């Protein structure tokens, strides 16, 4: 079968240490995914089922994908990733089969994290503008697969979306994506952690080297993780443009970068 080969099995190289901040979030997700793997007896003792699936929702660029990959790495689980829209473009006319193959592959190589990005492309409310005959059938197939996951199959679905309001409620029933975790814009501490990580190799002009970071933290409220990374990269580029042999990134470079990288994420939240 041609489809199977197209789901690429990865061993992600991202680790928790690569994710700045988000401490509580990391803990919550670790417990939901790793505990059932490591301590199945504890779940049995209390008679509770581990989640079959977890929904990560929130604005773009705020580490949903990073978290999924770091989790697979830490839990030593295989990682299969698919993007919702891909199912319709790469597997034209065969999207249901692609879903079947995805889960069959996941079971074969278990323990596996299936990361389903942009799940709203598949799980749009039936009858809504976005849904169609095809997408309704694909959604039905996805629900069947989720319901068919044995508690012992050691396959967990991590789904991500920027548009949780558009998901069909059938996906969110118990035994399916029964945990929803909000991955929001980085708070002050998380922004600080990301900025520190991304400027680790940079030198600043200030003597107390914390002040550039302090000013950046203050000026980046509403920026997503991806936008913070862009600010750091852009500032370094400005420093190089001024002098390719520069060893220091000056505040003026950051100031220019903040003007160049305008946060669009907050605007998106208001849409
Ligand atoms: P999308 O909805 O667009 O898929 P996402 O929430 O899955 O977004 P990621 O792909 O995980 O976002 O993050 C995009 C990039 O932003 C990452 O590759 C990384 O460079 C940076 N980033 C975001 N959050 C963090 C963080 N907490 N620590 C370090 N880097 C981050």
UniProtKB/TrEMBL annotation:
Q: Where is the AAA+ ATPase domain?
A: 50-187
Q: Per its UniProt entry, which superkingdom is the organism in?
A: Eukaryota
Where found, per UniProt? Cytoplasm
Q: Which family does it belong to?
A: Belongs to the AAA ATPase family. AFG2 subfamily.
Give the protein's recorded name: AAA domain-containing protein
Q: Which organism is it from?
A: Caenorhabditis tropicalis
